[in-house]
Design goal:
mainly beta; Neuraminidase; 2 helices; 4-stranded mixed sheet; Immunoglobulin-like; 2 domains
Length: 497
């Protein structure tokens, strides 16, 4: 009996055991491997057009399927970017091709991206290339076949312009058709070196009494002359308004001329040349060289015993003595091309060995001294500069870089139909061929706008036909359209595009 009870207990325990023939053994777990860093799968390069949004999303995989977060990890241009944790990369400020913000200044932005699974991370070096947008700018060749053109002058009430050639020819150009008509030829010139017919403005004040235009031309003896000239009269003539002796050198004649908002005639003259102004003309108030001159058209030329058509403008600083009464501003080397914008005169003064400069003066500021030859730009050049000189509002150095050159060609504050240029001062360099723009509102006396912030417009201003290889001048028509004058013989017009 005791045996039977023991056997029954043994059978009961066997029935309750997990080792019964009807069960499956549990598998042995596979040991997990070490964690590995994510691996980038997105591209190492990207391209976008300036002023547009960047379309780039960083992507990576993780062998352990861990969640991945993204960051800007470094790179020369890291400060220009931001990235979301999900990998969407953007520029903090839209890039500008004409004014690169990358460390190398070549419009290729270098940024290092990071991807992390929370424990390990990896990086990717990304190069983002910014390409140019012409920003609605088109440049069309509208005239060809000129012989060393130097200036374009607006014709009031017309879309046509006058083109003045170094050798004396004055042509009427229709930009819509390219047809040009010789109006007249200015004679009694010297044309060696930088001499010739240098500047022109149409007389909008009283053409019947004074002639239809005023020009700056160099006489055979080298004198820089302001002449009043007819254009449509069947018996063409010119009369001398003002003659400034310039006998020794054939360069640094200046040559710009225009009416100011005060109704007076403004004329720019160079210092007489020779390198370093050896005669010290620019600082001599009794010399008309190296100056801005201001001439008034006499409202009553027949009041005296003999007709007197032109006078030193009232308010000129030396009209009562101490200097030449026609001098309005001094201390300039070769202010070849200048322009008015409202009451401001923007003067582009060609430098000597190191600096090209831009000066600004209001028509209510007679007598300013811009410093040459004490200073070239803001740098000392010769002698000890006295107090009271007026510093440039911008300057750039000599060289072959994107914001360098060696002969400034003054331009205009743009007031034409291309929206992206309105309010920009557009100018260039005759030697380097660079064309730039900067905000005209930034040209303020007492501050120096840095050349590093010039927008280089070479690609924006590439013409439809040909190439601009000798930018001698800018000009405008009566509607404010901007023209570029290539001394090689072509005229270009900026249009919406």
């Amino acid at each position: 009996m005791r045996y039977a009870i023991g056997l029954a207990g043994t059978l009961l325990l066997a029935a309750c055991s997990g080792n019964s023939g009807s069960g499956t053994p549990a598998p042995t777990p596979t040991p997990s491997g070490p964690n590995t860093a994510p691996t980038f799968t997105s591209a190492t390069t990207a391209t976008l057009v300036e002023n547009a949004a960047l379309s780039y999303t960083a992507t990576a995989t993780d062998a352990q399927s861990n969640p991945i977060t993204y960051s800007v990890a470094g790179g020369a241009d890291a400060a220009r970017f931001s990235i979301t944790t999900t990998g969407v990369l953007t520029f903090i400020a839209a890039p500008n091709f004409d004014l690169p913000g990358d460390a190398d200044g070549d419009n290729v932005y270098q940024v290092q991206l990071g991807a992390s699974d929370g424990a390990l991370s990896t990086t990717l070096n990304l190069a983002v290339t910014v390409t140019n947008s012409r920003e609605g700018i088109a440049v069309k060749r509208v005239g060809t076949g000129f012989n060393q053109p130097l200036a374009v002058a607006a014709i009031p009430g017309s879309s046509n312009v006058y083109v003045a050639e170094k050798g004396g020819g004055i042509w009427r150009l229709d930009p819509a058709t390219g047809v040009k008509t010789l109006v007249r030829t200015i004679d009694n010139l010297s044309t060696d070196g930088e001499r010739g017919l240098l500047g022109m403005v149409v007389n909008t004040r009283s053409p019947g009494a004074y002639g239809e235009s005023f020009v700056v031309a160099t006489a055979p003896d080298g004198a820089v002359q302001v002449r009043a000239c007819t254009l449509t009269n069947p018996f063409p003539f010119c009369s001398i308004v003002l003659s400034t002796p310039h006998p020794t050198n054939n360069n640094h004649n200046g040559g710009w001329i225009d009416f100011g908002p005060d109704g007076n005639l403004y004329v720019a003259t160079g210092d007489g040349g020779g390198g370093g102004d050896p005669a010290n003309n620019a600082q001599n108030p009794n010399s008309r060289l190296g100056k801005i001159l201001r001439i008034a058209l006499n409202p009553d030329p027949f009041a005296g015993a003999a007709p007197l058509y032109y006078l030193p403008a009232p308010g000129n600083p030396f009209i009562a003595g101490g200097g030449d009464p026609y001098v309005w501003a001094l201390g300039l080397r070769n202010p070849f091309r200048n322009s008015f914008d409202g009451n401001r005169l923007i003067i582009a003064d060609v430098g000597q060995d190191a600096i090209e400069e831009i000066n600004v003066v209001n028509v209510t500021q007679p007598g300013l001294n811009f410093g040459w030859k004490f200073l070239e730009g803001t740098q000392p050049y010769s002698g000890t500069a006295p107090a009271g000189l007026t510093a440039p509002v911008s300057q750039y150095g000599h060289g072959t870089g994107p914001r360098q050159g060696s002969s400034i060609t003054g331009g205009y504050v743009y007031r034409g139909p291309v929206a992206s240029l309105v309010g920009q001062y557009v100018f260039g360099d005759f030697v380097s061929g660079n064309i730039w723009s900067l905000p005209a509102a930034s040209l303020v006396q007492g501050s120096l706008f840095p050349s590093a912030q010039y927008e280089r417009r070479n690609q924006d201003f590439a013409p439809d036909v040909g190439a601009i290889t000798g930018l001698a001048s800018f000009g405008t028509d009566s509607a404010g359209n901007l023209f570029l004058v290539d001394i090689g013989g072509s005229i270009y017009m900026v249009q919406p595009g």
